[in-house]
Fold:
Amino acid sequence: MSAPALQRPAGYGRVLAVPEFRAVFAAHVLSMLGVIVSEIALSVLVYDLTGSPLLSALTFALGFLPYLVGGTLLAPVADRFPARRVLVVCDLVCAGCVAVMAVPGTGIGVLLALRCALAVVSPVFAGTRMATLSDILGGGDLFVLGRSLLRIVAQSALLVGYGLGGLLLAVLTPRHALLITVATFLASAALLRLGTRRRPARARALDREHGGTRQLLADRRIRLLLLLFWVPAMFAVVPEALAAPYADALGTGSPGLGLLMCALPVGTVAGELYAGARLGPAARERIALPLICLTLLPYLGYAFHPSLALSLLLLLAAGAGSAYTLGLDQWFVRAVPEELRGRAMTVLSAGLMTLQGVGMTLAGLAAEAVGVRATVAGAGVVGAVCCCGLAAAARRSSRPVP
Structure:
């Protein structure tokens, strides 16, 4: 391929033209909407049964915490078995868990345990799916754009799913709403089973149960790339975690809260769409490290008591900065050996969700001590310093950054 061709973006249209990717994409849309509806329905169900705000909130927290378990103990599964089988089994396990949740009389302990089970399975599914994308689309620009499209779906599902969940609960009971999630998981399993072809397992030796994960984490360039994914995301979630008390402080009520919750995802989708559609692979790599250093700086504006409109602009700008992920994706897929790609993506997904959960928890603790505005501004300062340090380390290394 000529050098000019390498510089041009492949375009999202070429990705969607691949039949197998369309099946994965449709399955992802269904499962994301189903997960969001189930989170809302389960939170309402737990609150109805207990009257406890703490237990209701815990149902959301349990979506983050067990990711670490699934991402470490079950990471080898992504490479040791055929990817299509892993994906379909994960969907069926999730459908079974949610079906039990929907059974009348299921107790609180069982509901929370099943919520944990979903979170344990999720990183294996996410990692296997991302590794499958590299088989379907190759390891080049099409893979990066395919991964970008799945992230865009995830962010868009947050905007659509919460509204859809609220409408469903206006006409259905929480347990009946959970049945919709069962249907989306089963439909996702069917799409993946019928729409993708069988490929052999990636792992070359059955006795490498944990060696592959150790091999990944022993590689300095892979560790650095993982941190470049994880650390900005840990600080980026702080305004989202504190959106409710911040909206209360602004006196904007529920409409303001809704806008604050939407601003960051909207900025993220806009940034990814622009970088994916208008920039070529080389340009995405050039802007990745500068964007990592800049993406959290808009949070400093919270220190100046901005209005709701200005706060929304700050969040939009921060979200748009997350376009750095396309460049990181290109480096990551080149850095990881093909036979370890499934567990690498699983570890990446598990660490991302776990550290976002940690970031939300620390944000709450800090806000109790110094207030919401100071916490968000502090996250901008500390996060930017950490990101600049990682970017400098990446710049010094000739391996992660070509």
